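can u pls check wat happens w/ adenosine-5'-triphosphate
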Amino acid sequence: MNDQSEKMEKIVSLCKRRGFVFQGSDIYGGLKGTWDLGPLGVALNNNIKREWWKMFVDGREDMYGLDAAILMNAKVWEASGHVGGFVDPLIEDTVTGERYRADHFLKEHGINADGFSLEQIDTVIVEKEFKSPKGNPLSKARTFNMMCESRIGAVAGPEGQVYLRPETAQGIFVNFKNVVDTMSPKLPFGIAQIGKAFRNEIAPREFLFRVREFEQMEIEYFVKESEWKGEFEKLRQDIKAWHAHLGLSEENLREYEVPENDLAHYSKRTIDVEYNYPGKGFDELAGFAYRTDHDLKAHMEASGVSLEYIEPDGSRFVPHVLEPSFGVGRAFTAVLCEAYQEDEMNGEVRTYLKLPAHLAPYRVAVSPLLKNKPELVTKAREVFVMLKKEFGNVAWDDNSNVGKRYRRQDEIGTPYCVTIDFDTLGENPALLDTVTVRQRDTGEQERVSLQQLVEFLQ
Ligand code: ATP
């Protein structure tokens, strides 16, 4: 195993050990492609989503929020093309029945099969005499629809057929008219949504990277056709700013311009933003597509409802759409990979997460120097309550000695530790009502007065 794969393993194990991410349905042996967020994971995840909303919705005048239902009328998915075409190529081990996604299988054998037809996949497998990882012959490639199906209603029958949405985007398109009618937005404007999506991935793998249930943060940005290029460039910069806000370094990010022959039929331009995941290399973190007027037109035709935009001068047209689409789980993983550090402090190897303060599960941890001295504990509790009122995400930690507490907080990325000692109580009168604040990244400690503490930690 190389250093980078080892790093990823350490991150996954830290996630489990410290309550970030657990296997889904853990006590029953798990359910493939599902993960549960623990107390610290949900905090980090919520911070990512909150920051995204702040940047893309609350921080702008041209964005409108939405939270559409996960279950939608099956006609939505017929019109969007998902029932017919949301497929991946599948091949099977003809002996064990194990399934593989054909394009991923070929990629692992050094062949870029993006845009390959089923016949092309079959030809390569025959020509190169590829076998399954178990050494058995492979089946012919066929398509596999990735939508998760379910049923609703008390009566069996086709009207009960539903799909768990494979993307949040369609919830935005079918609400386009509602938002226009109620909010009277001026073009260009966007509708943003954060929510769950489900895909029956053939081979879920690589931690949170490819799962069957995940969250997306998506924007459909409506523009005049003549203006798409300029707006595309602006949003592209906004996407860059977002990834910088997550603390991801430029050298671990790159844009991949999807070649024309590999674009979805409705897209005129797509850029994937890729992150350099340890042990995996560059792979998709977020997508950014110009989807033309394809979706609104398809829904207009299928529903019979006009989805035209009417300008103040009475002219009407179907707007074109730019779609930045972010996976929360992939952002979560990238943030952890970027933050994971090992160094040496006081002669010991330490592991710490160099998380930006706005993403860290806890902003600060508060401790009494000794937990068996009631006067220290009382004062520390006062400080804890004060900070908790201010920041909310404040940890109380009075286990074992101060050094171990620091290590524990470093490992989960808490930027500051505040310790209340006898000087806080006035043993040294000059230090009355001051506390020790210790910084995660440098290990440096300084004395800060209680009056200035909130401002210091901001
Ligand atoms: P991939 O090529 O990796 O399968 P995609 O191009 O199908 O991804 P999109 O349909 O563009 O993905 O979805 C937008 C975003 O949703 C992706 O950039 C990714 O962050 C996230 N995403 C998609 N599929 C999954 C999945 N199975 N697990 C986790 N995140 C996903």
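Residues 167, 199, 201, 210-211, 214, 216, 284-287, 325-327, 329-330 surround adenosine-5'-triphosphate (CB under 6 Å).
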